């Protein structure tokens, strides 16, 4: 009997131990914050905003495609399979399986999710003075990321102020581009209402935080892409007439690190040269990788660092400049001429990914940067990517004004851009002026990621781009994997 | 805290229980002495009257006395590791007996979860390997030594470098994520990564639980369980000492057929002429040039010294062991080395007649140095691609820069600049109290622990490998440091740096279980009921300091750093904890030991999962029918025949902690005011419904013994793993693809492994002067992915080349990680052939690879997947292992073979750059004069010959002589003169040769980077061929 009691007590103790302790399994992650109930003070909002800015640094993909897809540049690189997606885009053979296009989708939607994390309704919403500005910046960023997506893919699912789970994605449809544009305009108008100009004392003065000018510039561009000429010219005029901006004096040195944040800067993606990285995670980098990637392959000579020979300007681009236009040299480096003139005997390599004889002179690793930068300087440049600069604003404004009949102001803006580089003043009007403005855009803004989208929106892509199929190549295909992962119900863009 | 409180409560309760129970013993009539093969008295031998459950055991001298009811009873003598012996009393009052060692006997004890059983009673697919057969091979790592010894267990080497790891797969790859089996050493959880901490000389036996009967370990059993027992002493035996030592020389088993300078110049000239129109060498008569492989491979020593003593007194027994092991690498010598010190103490104390304390302490100290391996940028990758036309050092004494290939650095310089050391201290132990209420019932409480501290230190000197090289840490050949701008116009130097990390890990496990075993006439019943509380925690702290003085390893310590104001220095840390709470029950019923049924159920709670799915139940059932014990079974040559089957469910919870929650551990970093500013971002997206993977396994097995000497085991299994845990691609819209972001871990996808296993063992009596033993095993495994997550066609795996195509996939209908790419159909021999081809291949030129149009649309499509096809599987279909041994008058000869067949390996160590060196096969490239149909033309111009195709996929099948050994045991007459019982000298060779068509260094390639990188060769650090000699002495 005693024995039985003892055995019973053992069994009892075993079961008590296991049932009594399911609390034993309730652990919290040490020293890590949970996404829920996170926003407790101003610093939390600021840190989440920093996270939302981070994805701007993924702009290198759209930057490349903007020229490689056009008649401006070829993909280049080590081989035809080195970043193969760019080679396909160069040849207009790209399809729905393209890693680069998928990155665009991924990076921009990640940016949007991070903005939505800030903007989504919260259970215990707190308030503090700078909150409106933080949320306005988040709206700017969300508008920027959506604009990238709608430029590339047309209709895209619109997710606003919420984070979605795997199941909810299956129910999403592609939102018509016009609705996406409306949301972009709404977000930008909200931002404009709150943000101040960098020059104003109400702006934080922190380099890299967007201001009213950036929001106006982007809004004007968004109107321009929709051919809403009057809204575009009105928006650009507000920006131009604010008096906060002027063209930088020297075009040649404008893209250098030391000339960042100049009078021409409307909106930059900020990069740093202080942190290394690896090829394994390009989106994790804090540096501008395009600068090293676009360097001269296996080069060891004066002025320039070596690099991976990406995004190489074409002869066609070189030839498109007016004679004596200094922007030709500033845009296209003729490497053989350079070596012949400066450093006879210096050698460089030719990548099997293609060679044109030209290197991308605007964003290119300098020898100083290579020598003084941290070791993996293929990936680590502090040079900002100029997304919107004043010259672009002037030319967009000129285009919108010309389209809405104000040729006089259009011509003034065009000539401002021309006189900075010492070119004669145009006097054209009407469609001739229109063509002049577009030609000027190419000379001024090549190798800055705009050309393909300019050709598409002006209907000139089929003329200028070999193998461009009208009715198809205006948009890029939605990555097939993304269609499948969203339940397979989205229609593909026409022609793909 | 909670854990400790519960543990102490339970201990108290169990001790109260123990001390309140007292029972009495019996008296005697038949007496006698039991001796062993050495004619020494054997203590602890069980003596029973046939048909009764109670009995007695022999005393320290081997003597026994037992009370019998009448003269006609039969006595059964049994002892672990010996054959049972039955004697009819027939009126004798004194019966002396000598027990025979079991060779591979049915009475051999096999360790199963929380208990032991015999081979005869076993219902599951469990295999035992004796420690001796592992130790004898002198293979440094226990897991490598196990390769080819057990059917159904695939072991691949992740790296042949000293201290490198292996991947152990029991019955195939069943999941995308963690495929490692659960490993227990004397009941203590041991991680498979750390298996090289074990001294092979300490191992008594290795028991592999392959089927559903491993389910007693529930949520961690899906990948099978390996139970390792260390050597134990025997009560009342005189101390026995054992000393062993060996010394060997290692060298590479293989070197690649790379181009020499003359061949290189010829090929490259042709390549450049075809591409750019002009040659790069004016003179191709360059002789041999530099053989870079010769500069980095070397012969390297390996040595081991082993000591052990076992014995026991009246109430206790002990086994103590120590080992020193040291190995240098065949690449890098002492820059790639492994040193290990082991100490082991096993104690068993009978505290009272009913209470036994078992203690195990295993201490390991190890030191490892390693070179960059198995990847782009590894020493061997650089060696293969370095070109032969340059010397190792230039005339000025500096290392050659190899400038023409921007991503290849001088491997000799790389070795010289690599400085790292990992020091591990590991203490594994347990205290186990077993209280025997009576012969039938016992209660065990044990506390086990596994503590490891891992100290890493690596020194990165300022180094210069030539302009533009990725590995540079200095800015020029003078080793000037980088100037970092920390504020406007404020620059500081960034000199040599040292990284130090301390990680400590502690597992605590309390387990408590009741074992019951009773025979009621023809019925025998066994039961195990228990509970287990497990916690694992880890704390990691690290720091990096810059500006180490003199750029010298002599000052490589954080304390010596000279960084201005410590500005660049940084620190990091993290902690984790995970817990498991489990109950288990096993019930077994046998009728006349002929029909045996067993049922197991385990309930596991894991902190890995959220409240929605924290607890799981894992049942399994098994049965055996010993046909040879049936009266109708009358086939004499078949001395034993058993049919077994099992079916059950087990789980796998090996994922990151807190994957069910969304944590802000992503990377949200941007640059404001030119300063890198940290923010927050969601890391892995949340999945509150996350749960364990479930494996359902069926096993049908047959064991038989022919003529008492030949043991054969065959198993057929079907193992289906469902609800795979992994992070497949999710829609971009979730927002997981930013810095530090990962898609949520979900349960999706199914994998099936089916297979057949066969084992055969034959051995003559090991004590005879002439003898032989043969072991043979065979495994066939068919691995297939059955489903993938919704919306995903396949999961892409490892890449090929640089920035290149995906080479492996996880896709329905194919093995895990199969190779996918273009299929080739020879070479385009003429322009007419290209022009007249029915299939358009864009950009094709004469001499290019001709690809197969898989979808039949008349065009080779390079921008999507429609023309890609399966190019092979990295998983061997068949594996054979075999041991053959003879002994004649003290001389013993043995060989150990292993073969893996039917799998492919991807040749991914060739850098596709114009100046990179190439393998000799390129000499047979297509030219007008040599219309090769195998190897394409060489050119620097744009071509598609480098896309991932079957041109880069090779047959990985191989047969390897793992070990050959000749030993001589001194006749006892001689050895006894030195006071020794046993002296054996031997010479032995590991990896003597390998038969394979594979071009790379070593076809035995594991998956260091996960299941989808299986079989991708980046210039694998090969296993060494080792020639050694050694001696074992016992006294």
Please specify the SSE layout and strand pairing:
The complex is a heterodimer of chains A (496) and B (1035).
Chain A: H1 2-20, H2 42-54, H3 60-68, E1 73-76, H4 84-91, H5 99-119, H6 131-153, H7 166-169, H8 177-194, H9 212-225, H10 229-241, E2 265-269, H11 289-293, E3 296-297, E4 306-307, E5 310-313, H12 315-320, H13 326-331, E6 332-334, H14 335-342, E7 358-360, H15 367-372, E8 385-389, H16 390-403, H17 407-420, H18 430-445, H19 451-457, H20 461-464, H21 480-485
Parallel strand pairs in A: 3-4
Antiparallel strand pairs in A: 1-5, 2-8, 6-7
Chain B: H1 2-19, E1 30-35, E2 46-49, E3 55-57, E4 63-66, E5 74-78, E6 85-88, E7 97-98, E8 109-112, E9 115-118, E10 126-130, H2 131-135, H3 142-146, E11 153-157, E12 166-170, E13 182-185, E14 188-190, E15 203-209, E16 225-230, E17 240-252, H4 261-275, H5 292-296, E18 300-312, E19 316-329, E20 333-350, E21 355-368, H6 379-385, H7 411-417, E22 419-436, E23 441-460, E24 482-487, E25 490-494, E26 497-520, E27 523-546, E28 570-591, E29 595-606, E30 615-626, E31 638-652, E32 669-672, E33 675-678, E34 693-706, E35 710-722, E36 725-726, E37 746-747, E38 750-763, E39 770-787, E40 794-796, E41 808-811, E42 818-821, E43 824-827, H8 831-836, E44 849-851, E45 869-872, E46 878-888, E47 891-901, E48 904-907, E49 953-955, E50 958-969, H9 972-975, E51 982-990, E52 994-996, E53 1016-1017, E54 1024-1034
Parallel strand pairs in B: 1-7, 13-16, 48-53
Antiparallel strand pairs in B: 1-4, 2-3, 2-5, 5-6, 8-9, 10-15, 11-12, 13-14, 15-16, 17-18, 17-54, 18-19, 19-20, 20-21, 21-22, 22-23, 23-26, 24-25, 26-27, 27-28, 28-29, 29-30, 30-31, 31-34, 32-33, 34-35, 35-38, 36-37, 38-39, 39-46, 40-41, 41-42, 42-45, 43-44, 46-47, 47-50, 48-49, 50-51, 50-52, 51-54
Helix pairs in contact in B: 6-7
Can you describe this structure in just a few lines?
Chain A has 496 residues and is mainly alpha-helical.
